[in-house]
Write a structure and sequence with these properties.
This protein has about 325 residues and is α/β, with parallel strands linked by helices. Helices cover about 50% and strands about 10% of the residues. It starts with a strand and ends in a 7-residue tail after the last helix.
C-alpha cells in the first residue's frame, strides 16, 4: 500500500485524495488552517467541496513531518505559493524516496518558471511528475468517470504513481513530456479568461471557437520553445483541458472573464472569489516568458492588457482583430 501525501486541502487536492484512496493507497492530506484539518478528521468534509463526504480512512494533518514517510507527494497548492511551501517541507522530503507529483497549474511570477523548475530549485534531484487533464474537482471527487495525463520521464516512478492514484473511474494516460503537460495546464487558464470575456460580451460561439483554436496554437508555440512535444497539446492535458476550461461555467477562469465581459470591476470580482483564479496570475508571467522566448501570443497579450494595463474590453478586442493577416 503506497503512502500518499496530498499537500493542499483545497478542492483539487481533496479530489486527488479521493482517487488515491479509491486506488488503494494510504492517504493523508496536509492543510494549513486547523479548522480545515479538523473538519476532514471529524466530519470527513471540506469547505470547497460541499456535499462530498470523504472516506474515513483519509486523514488530515498540519504537521509537515508527515512528508518523511510519503512515497508519493501530490503538490496541490496554488502555483504562486509552491516555492514557499516547498521551502517548509524540504527538510522532510527525501528525493530518493518520495516522488513529487505536480497538480497545480501556473507559471511563477518574477522567475517565469514552471512548477517543475521551481521544484528543481528547492529540492534538487527530486523525481518529478505532472498530472493534468479536463477535470473539475467536484466531479472527480464524486467519482464520475474522468481521465488525465500523467507525465514523468522516469518510467519506474511513473508506474508507481499510476498504481497509487489511478483507478477505473480516474483513467490515467502516460507520457514522458512533463514540460508539455505543464505548459498546457498553465496557459489554458489564460485562454479561458479570453473565452469568458467573449461570452460575457455576447460575441457568439464563432468567436469562442476562434479563441480556443488560435489559443491552442499559442500554447503549442510556447510549448515547443520549452522543448515540449507538439503532440502533447492534442491530448487530454492540451486540447482536452483547454476545451473544458474555456466552455464551462464551472471554470473559475472562464467566470472571471465572463464577469469582466459583462462590465464588472476586476478587483470586485477577485475580492468576491474565495478560490484561487490561476489564470489571473499566469496572464502576467506568461507575457514575460513569451518575451524572453520571443513567442507571439496575441490572445494572452489581450488578456494581459485587460487585467493589468487598464484597456477596455472593446479596445483589447479591436487590437486583436486588427492584427496583420498571416498564414495559419
Amino acid at each position: 500500500m503506497a503512502k500518499v501525501l496530498v499537500i493542499g486541502a483545497g478542492a483539487w487536492g481533496t479530489a486527488l485524495a479521493v482517487v488515491a484512496q479509491k486506488a488503494g493507497s494510504d492517504v493523508t492530506i496536509w492543510g494549513r488552517p486547523l479548522d480545515d484539518v479538523d473538519k476532514i478528521n471529524t466530519s470527513h468534509q471540506v469547505k470547497n467541496l460541499p456535499g462530498i463526504t470523504l472516506n474515513s480512512s483519509i486523514k488530515a494533518t498540519s504537521n509537515t513531518a508527515i512528508a518523511k514517510t510519503a512515497d508519493i507527494i501530490i503538490l496541490a497548492v496554488p502555483s504562486q505559493a509552491l516555492r514557499s511551501v516547498l521551502e517548509v517541507f524540504k527538510i522532510h522530503i527525501d528525493p530518493k524516496q518520495s516522488k513529487l507529483v505536480i497538480a497545480c497549474k501556473g507559471i511563477e511570477k518574477k522567475t517565469c518558471k514552471l512548477m517543475s523548475e521551481v521544484i528543481d530549485d528547492v529540492i534538487p534531484g527530486a523525481t518529478i511528475a505532472a498530472i493534468s487533464g479536463p477535470n473539475f474537482a467536484s466531479e472527480v471527487a464524486k467519482t464520475l468517470p474522468a481521465a488525465a495525463t500523467l507525465a514523468c520521464p522516469d518510467k519506474k516512478a511513473r508506474e508507481q504513481i499510476l498504481d497509487a492514484i489511478g483507478y477505473v473511474n480516474f483513467r490515467l494516460y502516460l507520457s514522458t513530456d512533463i514540460m508539455g503537460v505543464q505548459v498546457g495546464g498553465a496557459l489554458k487558464n489564460v485562454i479561458a479568461i479570453a473565452t469568458g470575456v467573449a461570452a460575457g460580451r455576447g460575441l457568439g460561439d464563432n468567436t469562442i471557437a476562434l479563441i480556443i483554436t488560435r489559443g491552442l496554437a499559442e500554447i503549442a508555440r510556447l510549448g515547443v520553445k520549452k522543448k515540449a512535444k507538439p503532440e502533447t497539446f492534442q491530448g487530454l492535458s492540451g486540447i482536452g483541458d483547454l476545451m473544458l476550461t474555456c466552455m464551462s461555467s464551472q471554470s473559475r477562469n472562464y467566470k472571471l472573464g465572463r464577469s469582466i465581459g459583462r462590465g464588472a470591476e476586476i478587483s470586485d470580482i477577485l475580492d468576491s472569489t474565495k478560490m484561487t483564479v490561476e489564470g489571473f496570475h499566469t496572464a502576467a508571467s506568461i507575457i514575460d516568458l513569451a518575451k524572453k522566448l520571443k513567442v507571439d501570443m496575441p490572445i494572452c497579450q489581450m488578456v494581459y492588457s485587460i487585467l493589468y494595463e487598464g484597456k477596455t474590453v472593446n479596445e483589447a478586442i479591436n487590437t486583436l482583430l486588427t492584427r496583420p493577416i498571416r498564414e495559419e
